[in-house]
Amino acid sequence: MASIRHVLPTRENCRRDVRVKNILVVGGAGYIGSHTCLDLHDKGYRPVVYDNLSNGHREFVQWGPFEEGDIRDTDRLEAVLARHSPDVIVHFAASIEVGESTRDPIGFYENNVAGTISLLGAARKAGIDRLVFSSTCATYGEPQSVPMSEEHRQVPVNPYGRSKLMIEEMLKDAGRYLGMRSVVLRYFNAAGADPEGRIGEWHEPETHAVPIAIEAALGQRDGFFINGRDYDTPDGTCVRDFVHVMDLADAHSRAVRHLIEGGESLSLNLGTGQGTTVRQLVDTVRRMSGREFPVETRGRRDGDAAALVADNSRAKEALGWSPRFGLEEIVASALEWHRSRLGGEANAMPPA
Ligand SMILES: NC(=O)c1ccc[n+]([C@@H]2O[C@H](COP(=O)([O-])OP(=O)(O)OC[C@H]3O[C@@H](n4cnc5c(N)ncnc54)[C@H](O)[C@@H]3O)[C@@H](O)[C@H]2O)c1
Ligand SMILES: O=c1ccn([C@@H]2O[C@H](COP(=O)(O)OP(=O)(O)O[C@H]3O[C@H](CO)[C@@H](O)[C@H](O)[C@H]3O)[C@@H](O)[C@H]2O)c(=O)[nH]1
């Protein structure tokens, strides 16, 4: 298989057709936001990060200026917008953990919905009417059919998904009545890391399947617990559509360009269209890391859908986007990132 580095766009081949513009990346010190800054920079944009560092990392801000602030602080946002005059806002900032949303629903609506109202107000005042928004396949709720197209009904089953759907509805009204154009990107399961190992997935606490399996392989956890093996799927474990974070980043840069070029508002799924069971994921991590680790089964996790796989044809058509990487590249890049973070600790471990 070709090295991941060989298919990444270079600064040179993308600069030719994109003028340098400021892009405000809200939540850009986080996982997907920082990879998007890397991609925007490589394509000739200047990403300005606005983040309160509640879940992000200062050291992930490497490709443009950093403005520390909270999206609920409208005055601070207005000052930053006035200073940088961005052409487009890319909005990642949110509380993201589904389980936490059931324990603290009001906190989720406060950060995600009230925070976005504050951001939209500041953007309107600054005359910025182009926005790319991080949504999620969790807005669909229980799948009626797989793969899921954008026409699938949206009936989220947890406060996290509902908060994202509320924002999608607000953006529709901002488009209808205020002329704001937006690209809503509904990600499936983001995973993987910058192939050069500069940034990667780093959530605290970590709840996502890929980094947890890798931490188990690197001896940072006792093992991996599969949440339920009694689903109606090929091996009884949940099916997910893992999409490489660099492919997501590429889609954001394309969405930015679409808006700058006058394109209409869009809602798009971002996934590969390929389903992977949790068991297959764990086996791939074992094989690629060369390390066995204990795998046990526990009960189902509340709110988990059996299978979530994207129909990505609309994103392909509207943005000319296509996922370039599969599960092996996801696991390889994530392994590299985790190993580089652990340094000698990972290398010192005896093979299992
Ligand atoms: N990770 C996934 O698989 C996935 C899937 C679907 C959708 N999403 C969405 O993508 C976006 C990014 O997810 P991520 O995995 O990179 O999460 P992340 O937590 O790594 O990034 C979110 C960033 O937003 C910042 N932030 C949060 N609240 C803020 C506030 N009030 N003001 C300023 N900054 C704030 C955090 O500090 C963090 O840096 C989120 O909106 C999430 O809902 C993620
Ligand atoms: O230790 C673990 C962790 C996860 N899983 C399972 O692995 C699958 C994937 O889980 P996870 O990586 O936590 O992702 P999701 O719960 O599918 O949620 C992610 O993907 C959603 C879109 O599918 C986004 O909306 C969310 O923000 C994002 O966290 C699920 O079946 C989990 O139950 C395990 O079995 N064991």
Automatic annotation (TrEMBL):
Its cofactor is NAD(+). InterPro entries: Epimerase_deHydtase, NAD(P)-bd_dom_sf, UDP_G4E. CDD domains: UDP_G4E_1_SDR_e. PANTHER family: UDP-ARABINOSE 4-EPIMERASE 1, UDP-GLUCOSE 4-EPIMERASE. Pathway: Carbohydrate metabolism; galactose metabolism. GO terms for molecular function: UDP-glucose 4-epimerase activity. Gene3D superfamilies: NAD(P)-binding Rossmann-like Domain, UDP-galactose 4-epimerase, domain 1. Keywords: Carbohydrate metabolism, Isomerase, NAD. This is UDP-glucose 4-epimerase. Homodimer. It holds the Pfam family Epimerase. Its EC number is 5.1.3.2. It catalyses: UDP-alpha-D-glucose = UDP-alpha-D-galactose. Belongs to the NAD(P)-dependent epimerase/dehydratase family. The keyword Disulfide bond does not apply. Residues 23-271 form the NAD-dependent epimerase/dehydratase domain. The lineage of its organism: Bacteria, Pseudomonadati, Pseudomonadota, Alphaproteobacteria, Hyphomicrobiales. It is an enzyme of class 5 (isomerase). One of its GO terms (biological process) is galactose catabolic process via UDP-galactose, Leloir pathway. SUPFAM superfamilies: NAD(P)-binding Rossmann-fold domains.
